[in-house]
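Recall that a protein's primary structure is simply its ordered list of amino acids. Everything else, from secondary elements to tertiary packing, is in principle encoded there. The following example makes that idea concrete.
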Amino acid sequence: MAVARPPGGWGGGGPARDRAGHATGGPGGSGTARWLLRRAGAKLGGFLRGRPRPLPVVPTGLRIYAVGDVHGRADCLARVFAEIDADRRRHPVAATLEIYLGDYVDRGPDSRGVIDLLIGRAERRPIRPLLGNHEAMLLGALAPPGETSPLSQTWRRSGASDTLAAYGLPVAEGSRPSREEWPALVAAFRRDFPQAHRRFLAGCRPSVAYGSYFFAHAGIRPGIPVDAQDRADLFWIREPFLTSRADHGAVVVHGHTPVREPDMRTNRINLDTGAYLTGRLGCVALEGNTQHVLCG
């Protein structure tokens, strides 16, 4: 599967800002100019309407590290852990929180290793893992009658074989199990899926909000308050969210739709950098009113 082209082309995103609030540019200098023009346009539009859009902020004393779709790339996740730890040493802060935006499983080679790493990370650092649509499908297979539920059947067609193989089931990575094979595979998966991994997924939320930011796997439906969103939209939405320029009441930090580099916009931040294909896992540090791309 090719990495999706975002609306408006690859150059639609803008730069990160450093911890002093200055544009850092990021990959591609032209993106800096576009981002600054969008920010200036948003502010001008707000002034003309009598309500300038304020910069998003994180609660005082807190730094948030948000991480995009991992998709079975335990190696990428381990590197992001190292980057976060190095950033904490370089720039000490009173408190940190790591928010993982879901889609830990499928497509990459080591879904089991990814969840093991996150469980271990939670023992050492404050983390808030969210559910993605791929975890929703996996949970649909675990819940009776897993083999026939719509979510389970969608999972069968959407990368389940990579996760089943990672848990030791006899299925080739990248294959699509047939309808006839599926009931036996689901029964074996339900039997062998570790209890610690069940507890981890049970503790994942569909969304969370801190300061002026709202975190969800896929995004939100524009025009609906962020605290009244439908779970299906939080897990699955693309349009009309991706092309919306509306002020959602919070900057939405999300993944789900792959982009070539972290896409920093005035109303949303996309951190799905297609790690399972590119080997690059998106991560941004949010602190005060600054945004700093750590990797991706």
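The first strand starts at residue 62 and ends at 67. The radius of gyration is 19 Å.
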